[in-house]
């Protein structure tokens, strides 16, 4: 810049004085450099935004897969699967989708179908033995045989 001022006819001292006046201002060359740097930063920002969108989508897919995996495991446990890994291999997991409640669509139907076709892979509900609530220990309604009066005992034995 100083050279340009000297070329138009100013002496060295005058050129220095003019340069001192415009020391804080932006020259055309500096403006061009800043403009190029700004353009490259805008481009880099757009690239980073796109990368962030891709990472967010991948993260969302990963979380959805984990939620489906945990829901399948919980359903297999509650269904009484003897070997979760073997039963899971028979499920069509690629069709599973999470609904808005966090439930896996189609899972219960597939487990029910597997229970019917391959019931040996699931624990059967144990038959509970013992006293039924509301019945006496002798199987009599209300009270036990010992607590009955003589006439109630005779009436009971007559029905047997």
Proportion in β-strands: under 5%
Rg estimate, integer Å: 43 Å
| Biggest sheet character | 2 strands, antiparallel
Side by side, the strands of the main sheet go 1-2
Overall geometry comes to: rod-shaped
Q: Output the structural class.
A: mainly alpha
Our measurement of the CA-to-CA distance between the termini, rounded to an integer number of angstroms, reads 123 Å
Count of separate structural domains: 2
Return residue spans where pLDDT drops below 50 for at least 5 consecutive residues: none
Task: Count the DSSP helices.
Answer: 6
Count of extended strands? 2
Mind explaining what this structure looks like?
The protein is mostly helical. It has two domains: 2-129, no CATH class; 130-160, no CATH class. The chain has helices spanning 2-7, 12-21, 28-79, 84-90, 107-117, 150-159; strands at 97-98, 104-105. Strands 1-2 form a two-stranded antiparallel ribbon. The radius of gyration is 43 Å and the shape is rod-shaped. The model has no long low-confidence stretch (mean pLDDT 83).
Characteristic terms for this protein:
160 residues; mainly alpha; two-stranded antiparallel ribbon; 6 helices; 2% strand; rod-shaped
Give me the secondary-structure topology.
Elements (H helix, E strand, L loop, with lengths): L1 H6 L4 H10 L6 H52 L4 H7 L6 E2 L5 E2 L1 H11 L32 H10 L1
């Amino acid at each position: 810049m100083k050279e340009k001022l000297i070329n138009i006819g100013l002496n060295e001292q005058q050129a220095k004085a003019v340069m001192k006046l415009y020391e804080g201002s932006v020259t055309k060359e500096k403006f061009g450099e800043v403009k190029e740097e700004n353009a490259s930063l805008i481009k880099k920002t757009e690239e980073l935004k796109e990368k962030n969108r891709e990472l967010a989508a991948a993260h969302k897919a990963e979380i959805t897969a984990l939620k489906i995996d945990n829901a399948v495991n919980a359903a297999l446990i509650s269904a009484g699967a003897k070997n979760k890994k073997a039963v899971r291999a028979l499920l069509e997991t690629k069709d599973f989708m999470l609904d808005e409640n966090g439930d896996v669509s189609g899972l219960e139907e597939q487990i029910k179908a597997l229970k019917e076709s391959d019931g040996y892979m699931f624990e059967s509900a144990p038959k509970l033995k013992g006293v039924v609530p509301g019945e006496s220990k002798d199987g009599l309604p209300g009270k036990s045989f010992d607590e009955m009066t003589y006439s109630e005992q005779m009436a009971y034995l007559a029905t047997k």
